Every structure is written in C-alpha cells, then in structure tokens.
Fold this protein.
Amino acid sequence: PPGAAATAPCAEAMVERILRERTEQKNFMLKGKVKKLNTVASAQQLLIQRLEKQILKEESCLERKAMQLAQEHSRHGQLKGALRRRSNAAVAAALGIPDKASQRARAASMPPNSSMDESLSRPGSGTLLLPPIAA
C-alpha cells in the first residue's frame, strides 16, 4: 500500500525523535546529579582539610600539655624531696639531733674504728643518748 510506505518513515522519525528527547532529558538529569555530587565532594574535601588542620593543632596542644605534665611531675618530686628534707631537719632540730651535714663533719673527725652510734651510746646500756634540747 502506498500510504503504508509514507507512514513508516514518519513513524520511524517520530520514534527516533521520542528516543532522542528521552535521552536528552536523561543526560540533563545526569548532568545535574554530577554537578550536585561535585559540589558535595568539594564541600567534603574542604571539611577534610579543616579537620586535618584541627587534628594537627590538637596534637600540638596535646604534646605541649604532656611536656607540661612531665615538668610538673618532676617539680612535684623535687618539692616533695625538699619538704621531706626540711621536715626531717626541723624534727631533728626539735629533738636536738645534729643535721646530716654536721654529723658527716663529726664522723670525719672521729677515729676510723669508732662510729657515731658508739659515741652517743652509754657503754653496755644499748640505749642512745641524745644531746640536750636547745631552747
């Protein structure tokens, strides 16, 4: 039929046009999605960079605090030792016992075979005689 031959190219052109329009719509939609994903990826990259910078800053702060803590711990030990020495010296002074420096000087002036304990104890008693308390 002569009309069928004329209709076929027209129908073919219409199908081709419909397919082309659908493809163009799909491409337009996909381009929009790509643009949105690129925007999201850029925002995430900026966030990653900001967080990495913050981590470096926090690590630096943590190292500084660790060093400060170590110094404070060391200082605490020094102060504790100084307090103990002063406390021992104060107790010794209150009891009239000479401090270690004078004991060392006294021990150095004694004959090698005698000890300070022997010089402060009564022979045979086994008790220690302390010097009188100075008021």
